[in-house]
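Sample 1 of the test manifest.
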Amino acid sequence: MNPPHFFRPLLGACSASVLFFAGCATAPETRTIDSKGPEALNTASINSQDWASAADQLVQSLLTSNALDRVRTQPAVLAVDRIINNTTLSVDTDLLIKKIRVALTQTGKVAVTNTMGLGERAVVASEAAEMEEMTTGKKQKLKAPDFTLYGKLIQQTDRAKSVTQNTYTFQMSLVDVKSGLTVWEEEREIAKQTKRSSVGW
Amino acid sequence: MKNFSLRIPVVSRGRALLAVAVGLLAGCATNVNTVERAQPQAAPTYIADKRVVTDNTLAGMVRVVAINQSTVSGNLLKVQATIENRKNSLRTLNYKFEWIDRDGMAINSPNETWKSVQLQGRETTTIATVAINPRAVDFVLKLRE
């Protein structure tokens, strides 16, 4: 049975509002993106693209310096020292260091020692070496590092009117263990400006 | 009452509009002037390149002037592209280098990521990367807005 003429507009309005609210109730859309691509969210802090860019620039600089070629036998043994985080961000410095380690290891010019410094699973590696000593009765010959790598993250915040600028500095140094000399140093900066909306609560 | 109107010749009005437009554009421009050695001492090894353009707007905005290569740390390929902003305003360009080995296989190095560079108006700058894998012999440079 068709509804009366006077009832039709009301029915149409109700249908439209139902469709409108049904549209609002849809599940949030999630999509997979390239975490190091331009689609990555750009925030006032260091995002995934920034970490990747900083790591790549530092690796490029280190390889171009030829500092790793000073060792007699390759691969050079590298011990990763402390990475000091002097930013207000609570970040895992492995976001930078791991990328650098992976890149350097793939060059074939570096082997990262796990028995000192921030070597991954350093405890397990040490225990494994001890167990090997116990079972074989031979003292294990651990390779002393040729180089140590240390770094620092610094943040400087500047404000002018409604604009806030966060400048993140990634500093890194490579020290020749035998001479104690710094054979390579580099720093890279990423500056981010955030403009606060003039109307806000 | 006598009507009064200011009559400006058409040519003068055109000039005035042009002057205003030039003034506005000059105000917005962030162009870069450069000075360099007249007889460069550097002797880059330029690469003959092949280009595929799928975005004409981007190609009109940024031009790859030249690509040169060198070897660092003994056996690692380094590639540098000289790029030019063809517009009069600040532009952001995203780029990525990908590496290919002798067999034509993609290497997928961890440093093959999109990076961004900002170019002032009419600025020419360089973007570079080092292949972290000694097997890399070829590259693909990808550009996007």
